[in-house]
Design brief:
Layout (H helix, E strand, L loop, with lengths): L3 E5 L4 H12 L5 E4 L5 H9 L8 E4 L2 E4 L1 H9 L3 H5 L2
Parallel strand pairs: 1-2
Antiparallel strand pairs: 1-3, 3-4
Length: 85
């Protein structure tokens, strides 16, 4: 299985939805809470080419987007292969 990282905040409904999909698939992920560690904000923006919203989701270091992007990959039946399932 591939390494998944997700930058989130505690109050973000899109973050919860993204994590729910990953949980449903049984995918382990590293959650990076930008609201608890403000130093992660700059890191996340740099890694996602300037994107400033959460969640920001990375699979094996590649930015795949946010919650809507994750669900679109699932709809297109591309998410499982990206995750190595």
């Amino acid at each position: 299985m591939k390494q998944v990282e997700i930058y989130t905040t505690g109050a973000c409904p899109y973050c919860r939805r993204a994590k729910e999909l990953l949980d449903k698939k049984g995918v382990a992920y590293k959650e990076l809470r930008v609201d608890l560690d403000p130093g992660l904000v700059d890191e996340a923006v740099k890694r996602s080419n300037g994107r400033t919203t959460v969640p920001r989701i990375f699979i094996d270091g590649v930015h795949v987007g946010g919650c809507d992007d994750l669900y679109e990959l699932e709809k297109e039946k591309k998410l499982d292969s990206l995750l190595g399932l």
